[in-house]
Amino acid sequence: MIAGLARARAFWRENVAGTLTALVRPPDYTRSLAQLAERQGSGLFADTVRDPGYESQLGQLHHVQADMRRVLDLVATKRQPVVIFVDDLDRCSPSTVAQVIEAINLFLAGQFPNCVFVVAMEPEMIAAHIEVAYQPLVEALTEDDYWGEVRTLGWRFLDKIIQLPISLPALRSDQANEFLGATLVDRFRPATTGQNDDAVDEHEVSRIADGIRRRGPSIADISDAAAAVQRDRQGMPPTGGFSPETRAAMRRELRRRLRPNDPEVAEVVAAAAGRLGKNPREIKRFVNVFRFYAVVRQERITAGLPAPDTLAEVAKLALLAIRWPHLRAALGRQIGATERDTVLSLLEAPVAELPEDADWAARKEALRAALVDAKVPDRLRANLLASDDLCKLLASGPAIGTTAAIFL
Which residues touch 129 (CB under 8 Å, ≥6 apart)? Predict the structure, then answer.
């Protein structure tokens, strides 16, 4: 447009100058542009320039997406994302489940950044719903034997959507009674003043964290170092429990250590790399789950509850969560008199009648017989023994059967 105006002005000066200037007034470009802008603002510009009507053809979905982007740009940041809770998804129809999963995938694909989804569900039900919704695709992949394992299309979908799988342990009978009592008490408890009962002295937290760091503990021994620092500074023995300041210092030190460049974390990840696939997403999910389980472990130790002894055990639990999520409930299934008598502990236990140098085929057959004796259903038994990688992982140390139930 500017080039056109320049050519018009040159034509006027060179060809029209002279006697005609008295008869014809040169155009006022500035005024013309102002009038054009005024006409555009008043809606008259649409009569001058043809409008192909693109906006009217965009559809409702485009407008919804545009509104979502505007809302997220206003309220969400990278440090403070919008957290969206999705509950009871497993109660929906297969088509609804598929639509919700596809909608969540739009957010995860980057079109709507700074969003976090927390989905409460029974993964077995959701995986089954997905397979019903995509039945033709399931049949096509089954005919080609694409997977090579019992992990189905539904579980593959969940692997790509769920970045940090968290399994809530079932309530024990004593915990159920405690929960019932606490629920009754909470219903009649007067409202609090809103003050934070866990307020801590930040200066004391920093001093305790420095004391823990100076002792140079391993990640697994942070709680022991914290107990020693607390005893030295506050005169409170470990049996008396950790003070709020000590707990805060432990969390701070653990958060500092659980970084990819920490030697211990790097060693654990390197050891697990051989059992992970070459998919970068799977490796990243393993690191995230491992770090989360490490935090859960320390919190349980702080509360005096059973927890894995070493980071190697934590890594083994994280591997189960990432590679065999469809078998977690089966591995945690109780098959004996106590809660520690699970399918997992059975698969980890050495088979007494086998020599140490027995080949893998003989050991696998012995495991099958042990599962039969434990009355594990046929289909579940076949799924457990379908993956040699799983059986070999459980046969290797360290054993996690005694503490795995809280993570499965």
Answer: 90, 92, 93, 94, 97, 98, 154
* pLDDT (average), residues 39-61: 53
Question: From CA 88, how far away is CA 259, in angstroms rounded?
Answer: 34
Q: Of all residues in the chain, what percent are helix, strand and coil, respectively (each to 5)?
A: 65, 5, 35
Nearest residue to 264 via CA among 302, 296, 291, 292: 291
Confirm if 205 and 249 have CB atoms less than 8 A apart. yes
Show Cβ contacts of residue 277 under 8 Å, excluding neighbours closer than 6 positions. 323
The tokens for 319 are 């591997």
Judge whether 176 and 194 are in contact, CB under 8 Å. Answer: no
Q: Which pLDDT does position 188 carry in this prediction?
A: 42
What is the dihedral angle through the alpha carbons of 392, 398, 404, 408, rounded to the nearest 10 degrees? -30
Nearest to 321 by CA among 367, 376, 275: 275
Residues 320-357 pLDDT 10s: 888 888 888 888 888 777 777 788 888 887 765 556 66
Query: pTM for the whole thing?
Result: 0.62
Residue 323: exposure state from Cβ atoms within 10 A (0-12, 13-18, ≥19): buried
Task: Give the distance from CA 407 to its chain's centroid.
Answer: 15
The answer to whether 331 touches 404, Cβ cutoff 8 Å, is: yes
How many other CB atoms are found less than 10 A from the CB of residue 341?
Answer: 15
Structural contact between residues 230 and 246, judged by C-beta atoms closer than 8 angstroms: yes
Q: Is the pLDDT of residue 147 over 70?
A: no
User: Which residues, 6+ apart, have CB-to-CB distance to 39 below 8 Å?
Assistant: 45, 48
Residue 22 has pLDDT above 70, yes or no: no
Q: Give the chain's largest Cα–Cα span.
A: 120
| Per-residue H/E/C for 126-184 | HHHHHHHHCHHHHHHHHHHCCCCCCCCHHHHHHHHHCCCCCCCCCCCHHHHHHHHHHHH
Torsion-angle region of 127 (φ positive above 0: left; ψ -120 to 50: alpha; else: beta): alpha
User: Alpha-carbon Rg of the chain, whole angstroms?
Assistant: 32
